[in-house]
Amino acid sequence: MVTYATENIMSPLVTQDNKGTSRPSFAKGVLGVGIAQQLRPLAQGLSRLDAARKSSFGPGGRAILDCIHEAERPIGAAAVVRMLFLDRQPVQRTLERLRANGLVERLENPDHLRVPLFKLTKKGTSELEKVHEAEAEVLGAMLAPFTNSELEACARLLLHLRIELSVREQGPSVKHKR
Length: 178
Prior knowledge:
By secondary structure, the protein is mainly α. It has a domain at 1-47. Helix content is 61%, strand content 8%. It has 7 helices and 4 strands, in the order E-E-H-H-H-H-H-E-E-H-H. It has a two-stranded antiparallel sheet with strand order 1-2. A two-stranded antiparallel ribbon has the order 3-4. The longest helix has 24 residues, at 24-47.
């Protein structure tokens, strides 16, 4: 069992596996569990910020809009599913709701006629940018105690974890750049 010091959740008391073997990689894994445990409440808290609550797309729609925006090209529902580690049906329903609200546009896929691609509309881009700007104001104040180097290290760590999870989900044959 992993136990954390109450004053610092990222300071693990356990550095051994369940067989009592001391392993540095296990201690890093314990820290990784602590990081992962902080991510869900953080994402949920961000979705409750005023800007996100006042948006027309909600937290699920926002995550999908972010994926499409990040891709910088039209993408299909399957790509969104892989990026967010979600089931296809809820993603498909949310994409259709976003389309009905004029936030994404469905395009014909030249490679697969039965699988459409989606891209942000001008309205979708504008609304997403408004939420990003409002969140940047709030997060800027919250992150003021940290240096840019610390924040960049955190961003690199989270990107690395996201890439590794994606590779593990897709299997060992997938090659990627780090």
